[in-house]
Amino acid sequence: MAHSYDFPLSPGKQPDKLPLGRNKPWLAPLAGYSDLPFRMLCREYGAACCVTEMVSAKGLAYNGTNTWRVLATVPEDTPLVVQLFGAEASFLADAVRTLRKAGYSFFDLNMGCSVPKVARQGAGSAMFRDPDNALQCARAMIQAAAPGHMSFKLRLGLNEENKPWLDIALRLEDMGAGLVTLHPRTAKQGFSGEARWEELALAKERLSIPVLASGDLLTAEDGMRCLEQTGVDGVMYARGALTNPGIFAEHIALAAGTSPKPASKKALKAMITRHMALISTLGNEENAVFRLRSIVPRYVRTLPGIRRLRQELCHCTSLAQLDTLLDEFLGQD
Ligand SMILES: Cc1cc2nc3c(=O)[nH]c(=O)nc-3n(C[C@H](O)[C@H](O)[C@H](O)COP(=O)(O)O)c2cc1C
Questions:
Q1: 179 and 43, same structural domain?
Q2: Helices 220-230 and 197-206, interaxial angle, to 10°?
Q3: Ligand 1 geometric centre to CA of 332 (Å)
Q4: Do residues 189 and 321 share a domain?
Q5: How far is the CA of 325 from the centre of ligand 1 (A)?
Q6: Atom 29 of ligand 1 has which residue's CA nearest to it?
Q7: pTM confidence score
Q8: Does any domain span residue 260?
Q9: Domain end point (choices 197, 223, 255)
Q10: Are 306 and 241 within one domain?
Q11: What contacts 24+ positions apart, CB below 8 Å, involve 277-283?
Q12: Domain around 284
């Protein structure tokens, strides 16, 4: 099965326990973004643990190449958590068993995503519509995983009238969940309003298993504030890492009591060059150029001339052209 693919599927040896603590920032699951090259880049900046993009439990059952592509990994890509989505206990538990056989070790269930592709299946945040089924899925996955190796990523619930996250989290803890991540917004909110960090503090107060925070952690300062205000066991960067993979180094510097320096143009060029190299070694050049056209503007979005850069990037067809364009744009410090 997995062996004939044109991407690496070699999970590394995982630790017994996932790294937690104020100086151990994680990379959140990011569909379409937290692929192998991006995870490796974030690790180089200090990400203590990374979560894959969400993987369909059904897709895995039908052995789709695109599903396995999301699982691309190399031995250095560790500690790694594979995030699954689905709404049927048998598929989800089978996915855990299949992945354990393939060498993956830690798993997470997506109980927060509300994009139509996921919600239509009753998966992601739609699991809150049928808590009994959600708990049945959770139990089957916990039984299929090694003890303590199954985690759950929750939102508060569907909307203001339906916020059962705490009851569900307490049940998950009783069943043997190893960890819970909370993005304290409802599904209906999407990304609007503010993440309610007070709910994270409540999670910490009521649960004995570790709690990870997600939500409005856009800078390393946000991450440190969240740790201090809520007492959570760790933070997970999502949009903050997409625009600045260096956020992990900044977080670690702040946790050690030093102030991180703003990234120079030279440091930005080095970051982009490294991301390019990782995409081309772990993917292919055609794909690399295509991906980088959307990645590069994110990293340099605050610099003058960004509109023109975007236009010129559309005409780049090789990594060499892209490199020349970046030299022109970022120049030398
Ligand atoms: C582009 C994008 C893709 C995401 N994909 C996933 C996903 O696959 N699984 C998941 O549980 N959450 C996913 N999320 C949610 C993030 O992991 C995180 O919980 C959310 O962005 C809140 O954190 P932030 O406000 O610090 O960005 C995604 C978010 C974004 C912006």
A1: yes
A2: 40
A3: 34
A4: no
A5: 31
A6: 30
A7: 0.96
A8: no
A9: 255
A10: no
A11: 278/36, 278/37, 278/38, 278/40, 278/41, 279/37, 280/319, 282/7, 282/8, 282/36, 282/37, 282/40, 282/72, 282/74, 283/7, 283/37
A12: 265-330
50 is annotated as an active-site residue: no
Asked if 99 and 86 touch (Cβ cutoff 8 Å), the reply is no
Atom 10, ligand 1: residue with shortest CA distance: 29
Task: Give the residue from 209, 229, 255 where a domain finishes.
Answer: 255
CA of 181 to the centre of ligand 1 (A): 12
Residue 11, in any domain of the structure: yes
Output the tens digit of pLDDT for each of the chain's 333 residues: 445 788 999 999 999 999 999 999 999 999 999 999 999 999 999 999 999 999 999 999 997 888 999 999 999 999 999 999 999 999 999 999 999 999 999 999 999 999 999 999 999 999 999 999 999 999 999 999 999 999 999 999 999 999 999 999 999 999 999 999 999 999 999 999 999 999 999 999 999 999 999 999 999 999 999 999 999 999 999 999 999 999 999 999 999 999 988 889 999 999 999 999 999 888 766 678 888 998 999 999 989 999 999 999 999 988 899 999 999 999 854
CATH number at residue 324: 1.10.1200.80
Tokens of 323: 């490199």
**How many domains does the structure of the chain reveal?**
2
Q: Is the CB of 217 under 6 A from ligand 1?
A: yes
Report whether residue 105 contacts ligand 1, using a CB cutoff of 6 Å.
Answer: no
216, 287: one domain? no
Asked if 228 and 213 touch (Cβ cutoff 8 Å), the reply is no
